Structure formats: C-alpha cells, structure tokens
Amino acid sequence: MLRTPTRIEPDPARQGSMVIAWNTGECFSVPYFELRFECPCAVCVDEKTGRRILKREQVAIDVKPRGAEVVGRYALQIRWSDQHSTGMYHFDRLFELCQASGSRLA
Q1: Among residues 51, 13, 11, which one has the least CA distance to residue 32?
Q2: d(Cα 44, Cα 37) in Å, to the nearest integer?
Q3: For the chain, which residues score pLDDT lower than 50?
Q4: Which residues have CB under 8 Å from 45's CB, separation 6+?
Q5: What is the 3-state secondary structure (H, E, C) of the chain?
Q6: pLDDT at 39
Q7: CA dist 85 to 2, 40, 44, 64, 78, Å?
Q8: How far apart, in Å, are the Cα atoms of 87 and each of 23, 36, 56?
Q9: Are the C-beta atoms of 69 and 83 separated by less than 8 Å?
Q10: Cα(98)–Cα(29) distance, rounded to whole angstroms?
Q11: Is 8 exposed, middle or buried (0-12, 13-18, 19+ CB in 10 A)?
Q12: Contact, 43 vs 54, CB < 8 A?
C-alpha cells in the first residue's frame, strides 16, 4: 500500500509541531524544527554525496511553516518562515521522518 497523508495541520496540543495523519490509520506529531532540518533539497543536502550540508545550528529553533502544498501524488512542499521553500518531502521519506522524529498519536 502506498502511504499518503490524509491530514496535515498544526498540532493544537504541541506548540511547534505538525500533525500528519496517514491513510494507514497512523498519526504523528512532528516538530517543525526536525522537518525543516531534514529538508531534502539540494541547498540542504549535497546532490552528489547525499551528505547533509545544513547544520542544526543554522535552523531557527522557532521555525514554522507558512504554507504547504501537495505536489502531484507523491510529495509535500513546505514554505518555511525562514524563507526556505525548495524542499519536496516525498511521502515515503516524510513517513520515515514521522517515525524517527515524531510522536505517535492515538
């Protein structure tokens, strides 16, 4: 089964986090900071080596999304408060980030 998000919104219970619910029934609260740090774009990750260029200390602790759009049927593009908007979070990678950095919600 292809995992796709069914709901993406600010988490009212956890300031600075986003709720991402999936068509599998799983739901996570993921900190904005972690999502921004894990941006997969070429500015944040070296295209040739796959090594992360962006350092944690370069991301503002209070970074937050200013908007988000689904791209096709495969990715989420987030516009961040630090003016960064070039990263496309493919759904499979976004799900991995939810599992690694998020808190599972009931």
Answers
A1: 11
A2: 8
A3: none
A4: 39, 51, 52, 53, 54
A5: CCCCEEEEEECCCCCCEEEEEECCCCEEEEEHHHHHHCCCCCCCECCCCCCECCCHHHCCCCCCEEEEEEECCCEEEEEECCCCCCCEEEHHHHHHHHHHHCEECC
A6: 97
A7: 25, 11, 11, 12, 6
A8: 23, 9, 16
A9: no
A10: 7
A11: middle
A12: yes
Instruction: State the residue for tokens 């979070």.
Output: 89
Which tens digits make up the pLDDT trace of 84-103? 999 999 999 999 999 999 99
In contact, 32 and 64? CB cutoff 8 Å: yes
Hey, what are 15's tokens?
A: 């300031």
Dig out the tokens for 102 from the structure. Answer: 């998020």
CA distance 45 to 87: 10
